[in-house]
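HUMAN: I'm a chemist; might I ask for a sequence paired with its structure tokens?

ASSISTANT:
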Amino acid sequence: MAFFDVTAQRDPTAPSTASQGILAAYNAKLFIQFVWQDAPGSTDPQFMLDLILDTKVDTRNGALDPLLIGNLNVIYVPITTSATPVLPNGGAAAWICGGRAFAWKAYTPQPDLPKNLLIEALQNFRCDK
């Protein structure tokens, strides 16, 4: 799946930058969204979960799960979504790295798949602090 710049889709004159942006990718069996912004001095990424979860279609479906993936302290929460009936399950995560805050969200057909996708993706995420 190829990611596209959501920010540039909204305004072609203002694409995503190193300071902030939104990327997304989708196909018939998966939707992923990735968001970042500068957050100097921040240590709690909770606000990024609030940013990436859409209160109109996303519902937290459990407690926050703190994860250590590589050298990243990540918070993860399973979600359900009404965004599409084909992909009713999901997960959202957030973390802080190098003065920036990140959030990730996925919709899938299976409830256990989002967390596994997150772990796989973050094992390849490089944090230059």
Notes: The helical segments are 6-10, 46-52, 113-122. DSSP finds three helices and eight strands in the chain. The first strand starts at residue 4 and ends at 5.
